[in-house]
Specification:
It contains 9 helices and 16 strands. The protein has about 400 residues and is α/β, with parallel strands linked by helices. The strands form 4 sheets. Strands 1-2-6-3-7-15 form a 6-stranded mixed sheet, with helices on both faces. It has a 4-stranded antiparallel sheet with strand order 10-11-9-12, covered by helices on one side. It has a 3-stranded antiparallel sheet with strand order 4-5-16, with no helix packed on it. A hairpin with a 2-residue loop joins strand 1 and strand 2. The longest helix has 22 residues. It starts with 5 loop residues before the first helix and ends in a 14-residue tail after the last helix.
Length: about 400
Protein backbone atom coordinates (compact mmCIF):
# COMPACT_ATOMS: atom_id res chain seq x y z
CA UNK A 1 0.00 0.00 0.00
CA UNK A 2 1.54 3.37 -0.98
CA UNK A 3 2.30 5.82 1.80
CA UNK A 4 -0.08 8.75 2.22
CA UNK A 5 1.14 12.18 1.17
CA UNK A 6 2.92 14.40 3.69
CA UNK A 7 -0.24 16.44 4.29
CA UNK A 8 -2.30 13.28 4.73
CA UNK A 9 0.19 11.96 7.29
CA UNK A 10 -0.02 15.20 9.26
CA UNK A 11 -3.80 15.03 9.08
CA UNK A 12 -3.97 11.40 10.23
CA UNK A 13 -1.67 11.94 13.20
CA UNK A 14 -3.46 15.11 14.32
CA UNK A 15 -6.78 13.24 14.19
CA UNK A 16 -5.49 10.64 16.68
CA UNK A 17 -5.88 12.25 20.12
CA UNK A 18 -3.01 11.46 22.48
CA UNK A 19 -3.18 13.96 25.33
CA UNK A 20 -1.00 13.20 28.34
CA UNK A 21 -1.94 14.94 31.55
CA UNK A 22 -1.63 14.57 35.30
CA UNK A 23 -5.43 14.92 35.47
CA UNK A 24 -6.99 11.50 34.75
CA UNK A 25 -10.03 12.97 32.98
CA UNK A 26 -7.73 14.41 30.29
CA UNK A 27 -5.14 11.63 30.00
CA UNK A 28 -5.29 9.40 26.91
CA UNK A 29 -3.45 6.46 25.38
CA UNK A 30 -0.87 7.07 22.65
CA UNK A 31 -1.18 3.54 21.24
CA UNK A 32 -3.03 4.53 18.02
CA UNK A 33 -0.28 7.04 17.22
CA UNK A 34 2.66 4.65 17.69
CA UNK A 35 0.82 1.91 15.79
CA UNK A 36 0.32 4.26 12.86
CA UNK A 37 3.98 5.31 12.95
CA UNK A 38 5.10 1.67 13.14
CA UNK A 39 3.06 0.90 10.02
CA UNK A 40 4.60 3.78 8.08
CA UNK A 41 8.20 3.14 9.13
CA UNK A 42 7.67 -0.56 8.55
CA UNK A 43 7.08 0.27 4.86
CA UNK A 44 10.72 1.38 4.69
CA UNK A 45 11.97 -1.85 6.27
CA UNK A 46 12.40 -0.60 9.84
CA UNK A 47 12.17 -3.22 12.56
CA UNK A 48 9.51 -1.74 14.85
CA UNK A 49 9.32 -2.50 18.56
CA UNK A 50 6.54 -1.22 20.82
CA UNK A 51 7.47 -0.99 24.50
CA UNK A 52 4.57 -0.76 26.94
CA UNK A 53 5.62 1.66 29.66
CA UNK A 54 2.36 1.47 31.59
CA UNK A 55 -1.20 0.56 30.59
CA UNK A 56 -2.07 2.44 27.40
CA UNK A 57 1.33 4.15 27.14
CA UNK A 58 3.95 3.01 24.64
CA UNK A 59 7.35 3.88 23.20
CA UNK A 60 8.17 3.00 19.60
CA UNK A 61 11.72 2.07 18.62
CA UNK A 62 12.04 1.67 14.84
CA UNK A 63 15.50 0.58 13.69
CA UNK A 64 17.05 0.19 10.27
CA UNK A 65 20.60 -1.10 9.88
CA UNK A 66 23.08 -2.20 12.51
CA UNK A 67 26.60 -1.71 13.74
CA UNK A 68 28.42 1.05 15.63
CA UNK A 69 27.62 4.74 15.39
CA UNK A 70 24.40 5.85 13.78
CA UNK A 71 21.64 8.34 14.49
CA UNK A 72 18.43 8.57 16.53
CA UNK A 73 15.67 10.92 15.37
CA UNK A 74 13.50 11.32 18.45
CA UNK A 75 10.24 12.91 19.45
CA UNK A 76 7.21 12.49 21.66
CA UNK A 77 3.80 11.32 20.50
CA UNK A 78 1.67 13.04 23.15
CA UNK A 79 0.22 16.54 23.25
CA UNK A 80 -0.88 18.86 26.02
CA UNK A 81 -4.59 19.20 26.82
CA UNK A 82 -6.57 21.78 24.88
CA UNK A 83 -9.51 24.08 25.48
CA UNK A 84 -11.48 23.77 22.25
CA UNK A 85 -13.41 26.94 23.09
CA UNK A 86 -10.23 28.98 22.69
CA UNK A 87 -9.33 27.50 19.30
CA UNK A 88 -10.70 29.16 16.15
CA UNK A 89 -10.70 25.72 14.47
CA UNK A 90 -11.03 22.05 15.34
CA UNK A 91 -7.76 21.09 17.13
CA UNK A 92 -7.97 17.53 15.76
CA UNK A 93 -8.43 18.49 12.10
CA UNK A 94 -5.52 19.77 10.04
CA UNK A 95 -6.29 23.13 8.45
CA UNK A 96 -4.17 25.03 5.91
CA UNK A 97 -4.46 28.79 6.20
CA UNK A 98 -2.08 31.74 5.73
CA UNK A 99 0.77 29.46 4.57
CA UNK A 100 0.55 27.46 7.76
CA UNK A 101 -0.75 24.09 8.89
CA UNK A 102 -2.85 24.33 12.04
CA UNK A 103 -3.69 21.55 14.49
CA UNK A 104 -2.84 20.12 17.90
CA UNK A 105 0.65 18.67 17.66
CA UNK A 106 1.74 20.06 14.28
CA UNK A 107 4.47 22.06 16.05
CA UNK A 108 4.90 20.20 19.36
CA UNK A 109 5.59 17.71 18.00
CA UNK A 110 3.76 14.98 16.09
CA UNK A 111 4.61 16.80 12.87
CA UNK A 112 8.27 15.86 13.20
CA UNK A 113 7.56 12.24 12.27
CA UNK A 114 5.97 12.85 8.82
CA UNK A 115 8.90 15.12 8.01
CA UNK A 116 11.29 12.25 8.80
CA UNK A 117 9.29 10.03 6.44
CA UNK A 118 9.45 12.68 3.73
CA UNK A 119 13.22 12.82 4.13
CA UNK A 120 13.52 9.04 3.86
CA UNK A 121 11.81 8.91 0.48
CA UNK A 122 14.82 10.20 -1.44
CA UNK A 123 17.56 8.33 0.44
CA UNK A 124 19.29 5.05 -0.53
CA UNK A 125 18.35 3.28 2.69
CA UNK A 126 19.68 -0.03 1.36
CA UNK A 127 23.17 1.49 1.56
CA UNK A 128 23.18 2.41 5.27
CA UNK A 129 26.64 2.11 6.81
CA UNK A 130 25.41 2.94 10.32
CA UNK A 131 22.02 2.35 11.99
CA UNK A 132 19.12 4.78 11.89
CA UNK A 133 16.60 4.68 14.74
CA UNK A 134 13.30 6.52 15.08
CA UNK A 135 12.30 6.95 18.73
CA UNK A 136 8.72 7.97 19.55
CA UNK A 137 8.02 8.32 23.26
CA UNK A 138 4.98 8.66 25.50
CA UNK A 139 4.03 11.16 28.20
CA UNK A 140 6.75 13.76 27.60
CA UNK A 141 4.23 16.50 28.38
CA UNK A 142 3.37 15.14 31.82
CA UNK A 143 5.93 12.82 33.44
CA UNK A 144 8.51 11.94 30.76
CA UNK A 145 7.86 8.33 31.73
CA UNK A 146 8.73 7.09 28.24
CA UNK A 147 12.20 8.64 28.23
CA UNK A 148 12.78 7.63 31.85
CA UNK A 149 11.91 4.02 31.06
CA UNK A 150 14.26 4.02 28.09
CA UNK A 151 17.09 5.39 30.23
CA UNK A 152 16.41 2.82 32.95
CA UNK A 153 16.45 0.01 30.38
CA UNK A 154 19.97 1.06 29.41
CA UNK A 155 20.03 -0.69 26.04
CA UNK A 156 22.70 0.26 23.48
CA UNK A 157 21.59 3.04 21.14
CA UNK A 158 23.07 4.84 18.13
CA UNK A 159 25.83 7.28 18.93
CA UNK A 160 24.06 10.54 18.02
CA UNK A 161 20.53 11.76 18.82
CA UNK A 162 18.48 14.66 17.46
CA UNK A 163 15.23 15.54 19.26
CA UNK A 164 12.83 17.41 16.99
CA UNK A 165 11.28 19.75 19.57
CA UNK A 166 10.37 23.23 18.26
CA UNK A 167 13.57 25.30 18.05
CA UNK A 168 12.95 27.23 14.82
CA UNK A 169 15.56 25.04 13.07
CA UNK A 170 18.30 26.35 15.35
CA UNK A 171 20.36 23.74 17.21
CA UNK A 172 20.02 23.72 21.00
CA UNK A 173 22.80 22.13 23.01
CA UNK A 174 21.80 23.01 26.57
CA UNK A 175 18.73 23.71 28.65
CA UNK A 176 17.80 24.12 32.28
CA UNK A 177 16.21 21.37 34.32
CA UNK A 178 12.94 21.58 36.19
CA UNK A 179 11.90 20.44 39.64
CA UNK A 180 8.32 20.87 40.87
CA UNK A 181 8.14 20.41 44.64
CA UNK A 182 5.59 20.43 47.44
CA UNK A 183 5.93 21.27 51.14
CA UNK A 184 3.16 20.34 53.59
CA UNK A 185 3.25 21.64 57.14
CA UNK A 186 1.08 20.23 59.92
CA UNK A 187 0.86 22.30 63.10
CA UNK A 188 -1.66 22.45 65.93
CA UNK A 189 -4.93 24.38 65.75
CA UNK A 190 -6.17 26.46 68.65
CA UNK A 191 -8.03 29.62 69.59
CA UNK A 192 -6.38 32.68 68.08
CA UNK A 193 -6.72 34.62 71.34
CA UNK A 194 -3.92 32.58 72.91
CA UNK A 195 -0.96 31.62 70.67
CA UNK A 196 0.25 29.09 73.27
CA UNK A 197 -2.75 26.87 72.46
CA UNK A 198 -1.35 25.84 69.07
CA UNK A 199 1.51 25.85 66.61
CA UNK A 200 0.84 27.86 63.46
CA UNK A 201 1.59 26.03 60.24
CA UNK A 202 1.27 29.33 58.40
CA UNK A 203 3.90 31.06 60.52
CA UNK A 204 6.16 28.06 60.00
CA UNK A 205 5.56 28.35 56.26
CA UNK A 206 6.54 32.01 56.46
CA UNK A 207 9.87 30.87 57.86
CA UNK A 208 10.16 28.16 55.19
CA UNK A 209 9.62 30.70 52.43
CA UNK A 210 12.34 32.87 53.90
CA UNK A 211 14.75 29.92 53.92
CA UNK A 212 13.87 29.07 50.30
CA UNK A 213 14.49 32.63 49.16
CA UNK A 214 17.80 32.67 51.01
CA UNK A 215 18.80 29.45 49.22
CA UNK A 216 17.74 30.97 45.90
CA UNK A 217 20.02 33.94 46.54
CA UNK A 218 22.93 31.66 47.42
CA UNK A 219 22.43 29.53 44.32
CA UNK A 220 22.19 32.56 42.06
CA UNK A 221 25.47 33.93 43.41
CA UNK A 222 27.23 30.58 42.95
CA UNK A 223 25.71 29.44 39.64
CA UNK A 224 25.58 31.62 36.53
CA UNK A 225 25.62 30.82 32.82
CA UNK A 226 25.56 33.72 30.33
CA UNK A 227 24.39 31.39 27.53
CA UNK A 228 20.86 31.56 28.99
CA UNK A 229 18.51 34.51 28.67
CA UNK A 230 17.97 34.20 32.43
CA UNK A 231 21.56 33.33 33.39
CA UNK A 232 20.84 32.11 36.92
CA UNK A 233 18.78 29.28 38.41
CA UNK A 234 15.25 30.36 39.33
CA UNK A 235 12.91 29.37 42.13
CA UNK A 236 9.26 30.35 41.80
CA UNK A 237 6.74 30.19 44.66
CA UNK A 238 3.78 29.00 42.62
CA UNK A 239 0.84 28.47 44.96
CA UNK A 240 0.06 28.33 48.67
CA UNK A 241 -2.94 27.06 50.63
CA UNK A 242 -3.56 27.13 54.36
CA UNK A 243 -5.88 27.83 57.22
CA UNK A 244 -9.66 27.97 57.42
CA UNK A 245 -10.73 30.88 59.63
CA UNK A 246 -9.27 34.15 60.93
CA UNK A 247 -9.83 33.24 64.59
CA UNK A 248 -8.20 29.81 64.45
CA UNK A 249 -4.51 29.05 64.63
CA UNK A 250 -3.62 27.56 61.26
CA UNK A 251 -2.96 23.81 61.47
CA UNK A 252 -2.27 23.03 57.81
CA UNK A 253 -0.36 24.89 55.12
CA UNK A 254 0.94 23.70 51.75
CA UNK A 255 3.30 25.32 49.26
CA UNK A 256 4.13 24.29 45.69
CA UNK A 257 7.17 25.74 43.93
CA UNK A 258 9.37 25.10 40.94
CA UNK A 259 13.13 25.23 40.60
CA UNK A 260 15.00 25.56 37.29
CA UNK A 261 18.62 24.43 37.80
CA UNK A 262 21.45 25.17 35.42
CA UNK A 263 23.64 22.45 33.91
CA UNK A 264 26.01 21.23 36.60
CA UNK A 265 23.51 21.61 39.45
CA UNK A 266 22.60 18.18 40.85
CA UNK A 267 18.95 17.74 41.80
CA UNK A 268 19.76 15.47 44.75
CA UNK A 269 22.11 18.05 46.23
CA UNK A 270 19.56 20.86 45.85
CA UNK A 271 16.88 18.78 47.56
CA UNK A 272 19.27 17.86 50.39
CA UNK A 273 19.94 21.55 51.03
CA UNK A 274 16.21 22.25 51.15
CA UNK A 275 15.60 19.36 53.56
CA UNK A 276 18.28 20.67 55.92
CA UNK A 277 16.54 24.03 56.09
CA UNK A 278 13.13 22.44 56.64
CA UNK A 279 14.46 20.33 59.51
CA UNK A 280 15.58 23.48 61.32
CA UNK A 281 12.21 25.22 60.78
CA UNK A 282 10.26 22.17 61.99
CA UNK A 283 12.22 22.06 65.24
CA UNK A 284 11.96 25.81 65.80
CA UNK A 285 8.18 25.98 65.24
CA UNK A 286 7.28 22.52 66.64
CA UNK A 287 5.50 21.44 63.47
CA UNK A 288 5.71 18.47 61.11
CA UNK A 289 7.05 19.22 57.64
CA UNK A 290 6.67 16.79 54.73
CA UNK A 291 8.59 17.54 51.57
CA UNK A 292 8.65 15.77 48.23
CA UNK A 293 8.52 16.18 44.45
CA UNK A 294 5.26 16.60 42.55
CA UNK A 295 6.98 14.59 39.79
CA UNK A 296 10.54 13.23 39.57
CA UNK A 297 11.85 16.29 37.75
CA UNK A 298 13.99 16.70 34.64
CA UNK A 299 17.75 17.20 34.92
CA UNK A 300 19.48 20.08 33.22
CA UNK A 301 21.17 19.19 29.93
CA UNK A 302 24.35 20.23 28.16
CA UNK A 303 26.15 18.91 25.11
CA UNK A 304 29.66 20.34 24.76
CA UNK A 305 30.21 22.98 22.10
CA UNK A 306 32.96 20.93 20.45
CA UNK A 307 30.82 17.80 20.17
CA UNK A 308 30.91 16.42 16.61
CA UNK A 309 27.10 16.41 16.51
CA UNK A 310 26.90 20.06 17.58
CA UNK A 311 29.43 21.03 14.94
CA UNK A 312 27.55 19.03 12.29
CA UNK A 313 24.24 20.69 13.20
CA UNK A 314 25.83 24.13 13.11
CA UNK A 315 27.28 23.42 9.68
CA UNK A 316 24.01 22.09 8.25
CA UNK A 317 21.80 24.84 9.70
CA UNK A 318 24.18 27.80 9.47
CA UNK A 319 23.38 28.71 13.08
CA UNK A 320 25.47 28.52 16.22
CA UNK A 321 24.07 26.21 18.89
CA UNK A 322 21.98 27.94 21.55
CA UNK A 323 20.30 27.34 24.89
CA UNK A 324 16.59 26.80 25.52
CA UNK A 325 14.42 27.80 28.45
CA UNK A 326 12.24 24.69 28.22
CA UNK A 327 13.08 21.14 29.32
CA UNK A 328 13.21 18.13 26.97
CA UNK A 329 14.03 14.43 26.94
CA UNK A 330 17.64 15.22 26.00
CA UNK A 331 19.22 14.44 29.41
CA UNK A 332 17.87 10.88 29.29
CA UNK A 333 19.43 10.16 25.89
CA UNK A 334 22.61 11.90 27.01
CA UNK A 335 22.71 9.60 30.06
CA UNK A 336 22.68 6.61 27.70
CA UNK A 337 25.88 7.85 26.05
CA UNK A 338 24.38 9.61 23.03
CA UNK A 339 25.69 12.90 21.72
CA UNK A 340 22.41 14.83 21.81
CA UNK A 341 20.97 18.06 20.48
CA UNK A 342 17.47 19.53 20.20
CA UNK A 343 16.57 20.71 16.71
CA UNK A 344 13.13 20.96 15.12
CA UNK A 345 11.05 23.06 12.73
CA UNK A 346 8.37 24.54 15.00
CA UNK A 347 8.44 27.66 17.16
CA UNK A 348 8.16 27.25 20.92
CA UNK A 349 6.11 30.48 21.09
CA UNK A 350 3.11 28.73 19.52
CA UNK A 351 3.50 25.42 21.37
CA UNK A 352 0.88 24.76 24.09
CA UNK A 353 -1.21 27.58 22.61
CA UNK A 354 -4.62 27.65 20.90
CA UNK A 355 -4.33 27.54 17.09
CA UNK A 356 -0.95 25.80 17.19
CA UNK A 357 0.68 25.94 13.76
CA UNK A 358 3.69 25.05 11.61
CA UNK A 359 4.86 27.45 8.90
CA UNK A 360 4.87 25.71 5.52
CA UNK A 361 8.13 27.50 4.72
CA UNK A 362 9.83 25.32 7.35
CA UNK A 363 8.94 22.02 5.68
CA UNK A 364 11.48 21.83 2.86
CA UNK A 365 14.41 23.14 4.97
CA UNK A 366 13.59 20.54 7.62
CA UNK A 367 13.45 17.72 5.09
CA UNK A 368 16.80 18.77 3.62
CA UNK A 369 18.31 19.07 7.11
CA UNK A 370 17.14 15.58 8.03
CA UNK A 371 18.58 14.16 4.81
CA UNK A 372 21.88 15.84 5.62
CA UNK A 373 21.93 14.40 9.13
CA UNK A 374 21.10 10.90 7.91
CA UNK A 375 23.68 11.14 5.12
CA UNK A 376 26.46 12.19 7.51
CA UNK A 377 25.54 9.86 10.38
CA UNK A 378 24.21 6.76 8.63
CA UNK A 379 25.23 6.61 4.94
CA UNK A 380 28.94 6.98 5.67
CA UNK A 381 31.22 4.57 7.54
CA UNK A 382 31.45 5.05 11.29
CA UNK A 383 34.45 7.06 12.43
CA UNK A 384 36.82 5.10 14.71
CA UNK A 385 36.38 5.88 18.39
CA UNK A 386 39.26 6.90 20.67
CA UNK A 387 40.89 3.94 22.37
CA UNK A 388 39.11 3.00 25.58
CA UNK A 389 35.85 4.78 24.72
CA UNK A 390 32.51 2.95 24.78
CA UNK A 391 30.13 3.12 21.85
CA UNK A 392 26.58 3.90 22.94
Amino acid sequence: MPLPSLKQQFSQLIALPSVSCTQPEWDQSNLPVVEQLAQWFGEFGFACELQEIEPGKFNLLATLGQGPGGLILAGHTDTVPFDSGRWSLDPLKLLERDDRWYGLGVCDMKGFFPLIIEALKELPLDKLQQPLMILATCDEESSMSGARALAKLGRPLPRKAVIGEPTGLRPVRLHKGILMEQINITGQSGHSSDPSLGHSAMEAMHAVIGRLLDLRGQWQKRWQNPLFGVPVPTLNLGCIHGGDNPNRICAQCALEFDLRPLPGMASDELRAQIRAQLKDVAAEHQVQIDYGPLFPGVPAFEELADSPLVQLAERLTGHSAESAAFATEAPYLKALGCQTIVLGPGDIACAHQPDEYLDLARIEPTVQLLRGLIDECCLRPAEPQPQGSADA
